[in-house]
Amino acid sequence: MFKDVFIHYPTLMNNNMNKILTIIVPSYNMESLLDVGLNSLLIDRLDYLDIIVVNDGSKDKTSAIAHRYAELYPNSFTVIDKSNGNYGSCINAGLKIAKGKYIKILDADDSFIKDNFEKFVEELLLIDVDLIITDYVKSYISGNNIYFTYDLPQKNVFRVFFFKPKCLSQVWETKI
């Protein structure tokens, strides 16, 4: 089963789109992990990213951490502070202001491997497809060792699937 799906869905996006990828980060009381995930987004091509951290009424320093990134990188980071709702309400709030050609949800306790993510963004700039499915890595810590598992062969950085736009809208229309 694939975990990471990047969707090109033009009707969800604002008309003044100038970013290749919107990353929505739903966050609730994630002060201990949020820095790791947001730091993994700080790549050389940061200007091509639209990163939206949605603070879901956190009672810790989640909002302050997110706002620090928005102050340091105002062209790429946006923070939405909202009252506590649920995971879906965070995603919906982010979708309303998304500027990217593609959309990715990144849980606040997850992160990207920077080098791989940089290569991925570079590749996104060269293609025009409806759906991209990528592999993901699970990491396990045991003592002083970190172990990684992959679901796809490592030579496959990502797979690209083509869909007719009408078909894609039918698939996703009822789920949003």
* Main β-sheet description: 4 strands, parallel
Say how many strands there are.
9
**Per CATH, what is the topology?**
Spore Coat Polysaccharide Biosynthesis Protein SpsA, Chain A
What is the name of the CATH class? Alpha Beta
| Beta-strand residue percentage | 25-35%
Helix fraction by DSSP (H/I, runs of at least 4):
25-40%
Strand order of the largest sheet: 4-3-2-5
Mean pLDDT comes to: 78
Distance between the termini: 21 Å
Task: Work out the helix count.
Answer: 5
What is the fourth-level CATH superfamily? Spore Coat Polysaccharide Biosynthesis Protein SpsA, Chain A
Structural class: alpha/beta
Q: What general form does the structure show?
A: globular
Spell the H/E element sequence. EEHEHEHEHEEEEH
Number of structural units classed as domains:
1
Assign the CATH architecture: Alpha-Beta Complex
Walk me through what this model shows.
This protein has helices at residues 34-39, 62-72, 87-97, 114-124, 165-173; strands at residues 4-7, 19-27, 49-56, 77-82, 100-105, 131-134, 137-142, 145-150, 158-161. With 176 residues, the chain is of the alpha/beta class. The chain has one domain (4-173): Spore Coat Polysaccharide Biosynthesis Protein SpsA, Chain A (Alpha-Beta Complex), CATH 3.90.550.10. The model is unreliable at 7-15 and 157-176 (pLDDT under 50).
Provide the descriptors you would attach to this structure in a database record.
about 180 residues, alpha/beta, Spore Coat Polysaccharide Biosynthesis Protein SpsA, Chain A, 4-stranded parallel beta sheet, 3-stranded antiparallel beta sheet, 5 helices, about 30% strand
